[in-house]
Amino acid sequence: MGMALVLSAWCSGHPAIAQDARPLPPLPPPSTEPAPLPAVNSPPAQEVAPAPSSTVPAGAATLSPPGYVAEPSDDVPPRFGSRGQFVLSGTSAIGASHYEYDNSEATGSSFEFSPGADYFVARDVSIGIDADASYLYSQGYAIDGTLNQSRTTRFALAPRVGLNLPMGRMLSLYPRFTLGYESISALETGPFGSGAGLTATTSESGAFVEIFVPLLFHPIPRFYFGFGPDFFHHFGEVTGGPTSGGQATTVGVSLVVGAYWSGAQAAADEAPRRPPRHRQFGEAGEFVLTNAIQSGFHFTTVAGGDLHSSGFGVSPTLDFFVANHVSFGLGMNILTTQDKGVDLLTRTTSETDSSSLSVHGIIGLDAPIAEGLSLYPRAYLGVESQSFDRTIDATSSTENDTVVYTGIELPLLVHPGPHVFVGLGPEVAHELSRAVTFTTTPGTPPFQNRRTIVDGFLIVGGWF
After folding, report:
1. pLDDT tens digit string along 315-366?
2. Which end of the chain lies in a sparser environment, N or C, as judged by fewer CB atoms within 10 Å?
3. Domains of the chain: which residue ranges?
């Protein structure tokens, strides 16, 4: 909901905003709330299906390679946009997370249930819904070294309509219009351990509208990815904070990944000249794409002031089965963010700039359980460089982190049709090293502040 941009984050070990080794999770929808002081996480530097039987005369020429099995014509999947088709967007998010650091009191937890799905009620006409219930808690360090806490709760519900416009066998334009309502509340408390604490509460409720016009590419049946412009406007206004009022508008470009299945085959649909052979997920030579590749750009402004935020992220990730049931992959995450907001506790203007670059290798093992069901554990190892600059009034802080991380995820995949899967599973990630350096205190040697995270996640993908 809101922006389709999905950018995941490995929380920084210090005042930095860091990136996750795993696929980047979605940015929160734009909000007119004043941005709270970014919490930092360390104190300052001190099997194949049976083939249909057939008879081929000896010596007869065939058009298929050995092992090729043609599917019956009625197995040809309906094209995207067929009546009765279900569509699951890769921007859906379902999961929970908890993290801790080994050299500070920084910690955090989150829960999110944000499914997004569409259904084609008629040929090329869809209706859908976005729902969101999420909670975020974090404890970290302010720029002066004091320990603060923040809690954010969000509820939203938004119906939407879509129109698919085919542009050939592999392309289509799929504009969607969303009108919804959301409620967001935020509580900031601190500092702790230094006398009386402060408390600031803000809330925001109201309608919002979003228009997303992606150009979709359908490389294989039942799976798509694409990108396009995105417009979002929130009619609600913030109350209770230092910058009450002001509606937020966001424009950007987003990449989306999704899966679809079912649907009625129309007589006018052109059948493939040669139906594909029966294959199963995990066979040698297959490429795998998931919602980890989501990327995009956004810019948000708030009416009546000069508060704004922007972000850019790219996360190309690809897996390849080098042998039956064994895959290797490579992923990269690039993220930059800029934000000008107001600290809820000090009620002063704050500016933050962050960037990160990470690269990680992946190894996976497909373990079929039953028809249409498999486990796909994957382990990864990577390196990351992060930088974070923050200014509040005349006080500045600059941090650079170098991270080596590893992790393992264990999703249970459901295959509703060939070439597509949806899954849920746990993940455990651990930083082998996080060297934290403050450039504002030259001469201070780097110190270690490693993070461990345990979470669950939703995965949507396709293979070809």
Report:
1. 888 999 999 999 999 999 999 998 887 776 666 777 889 999 999 999 999 9
2. C
3. 78-265+283-463
Distance CA 329, CA 336 (A): 24
pLDDT tens digits for range 204-230: 889 999 999 999 999 888 888 889 999
State how far the Cα of 335 lies from the Cα of 315, in Å rounded to an integer. Answer: 8
Tokens read off for 170? 């592999």
Q: Global pTM?
A: 0.74
